[in-house]
């Protein structure tokens, strides 16, 4: 039984590559709720930083809300397994200017859902595609 539903229309950030199917099978969805008037600053910082995250083909897409709840940003990432997820997240801190991106974007976040990690300035979910998914990783 459906208990609740939320609809949003999203636009893709222009600086992200076009979404492509990934080998997955682990997907990470991060949700950031920004303070009013900060979307352009957020986009400008990520336009510089995303090139470091696209090197490993893990960045699937970056989107922001157009209708519904405004100032919400979604980042979707793909990893081959939980070990590569952990390695890539930790390796980001060794990349040039990544710490600057975090320094300038964390203050723009208005709300953080502490789910499942309490110290992240976002809501984060790890997802597995279902068997009927068009993603190659959806195959049994």
From TrEMBL:
Residues 27-114 form the NIPSNAP domain. GO terms for cellular component: mitochondrion. InterPro entries: Dimeric_a/b-barrel (IPR011008), NIPSNAP (IPR012577), NipSnap_domain (IPR051557). One of its GO terms (biological process) is sensory perception of pain. It holds the Pfam family NIPSNAP. Transmembrane segments: none annotated. Belongs to the NipSnap family. This is Protein NipSnap homolog 1-like. It comes from Phyllostomus discolor.
């Amino acid at each position: 039984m459906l208990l609740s539903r939320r609809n949003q229309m999203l636009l893709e950030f222009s600086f992200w590559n076009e979404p492509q199917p990934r080998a997955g099978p682990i997907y990470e969805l991060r949700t950031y709720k920004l303070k009013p008037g900060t979307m352009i600053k957020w986009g400008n910082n990520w336009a510089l930083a995303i090139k470091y995250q696209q090197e490993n083909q893990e960045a699937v897409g970056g989107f922001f809300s157009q209708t519904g709840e405004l100032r919400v940003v979604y980042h979707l990432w793909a990893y081959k397994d939980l070990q590569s997820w952990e390695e890539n997240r930790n390796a980001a801190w060794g990349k040039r200017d990544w710490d600057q991106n975090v320094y300038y974007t964390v203050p723009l976040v208005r709300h953080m859902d502490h789910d499942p990690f309490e110290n992240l300035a976002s809501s984060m979910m790890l997802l597995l595609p279902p068997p009927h998914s068009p993603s190659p990783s959806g195959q049994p």
